[in-house]
């Protein structure tokens, strides 16, 4: 039987709508680790039709990770992976009992495990929370974070933001009113504002209008 040891285990706890899958996918792109397994409920459903088959896919991912010098395993939405439903505390015992032993092995080796959840209380009840060394709370964005997202998004799209981002009223007035904007909402508004702007520019007024039109 193969023994697994883990370099690190981290569990970001995301507020709804904060774009956990997008954030985890970006982390995977930026890491220097060559071997990455990204596991989500959707990917398991596409690959397997039974709980036993899905559990086997998860176990195989950990086994493969242990065969390389360094690896990253991402469990995107671990509550969905174990099919957790708060009503009646329903979940897949087959998948849960596959994951828990894998996470509880020694944690000072070569495999980095990063999981995410929107349901910290439920994962605590199932014993998943106790498996993770680091628990990170990821909420909605503050003003500097929103400005940085727009800046990085424009760079990635080769666009120029036409306006003063530091004084952009679309963010300032929402901050003053205590209105929270999630990453998903902001990315949605940026994509639609881009369609309204011309050429290689993202015009501040177009983003402002999109934020207003979507009720953010």
TrEMBL record:
GO cellular component: Golgi stack
Keyword annotations of the record: ATP-binding, Cytoplasm, ER-Golgi transport, Hydrolase, Magnesium, Metal-binding, Nucleotide-binding, Protein transport, Transport
Reaction it catalyzes: ATP + H2O = ADP + phosphate + H(+)
Matching InterPro entries: ATPase_AAA_core, P-loop_NTPase, Vesicle-fus_ATPase
Residue intervals of the ATPase AAA-type core domain: 16-120
Molecular function GO labels: ATP binding; ATP hydrolysis activity; metal ion binding
Protein family per UniProt: Belongs to the AAA ATPase family.
Protein name as annotated: Vesicle-fusing ATPase
Record organism: Spironucleus salmonicida
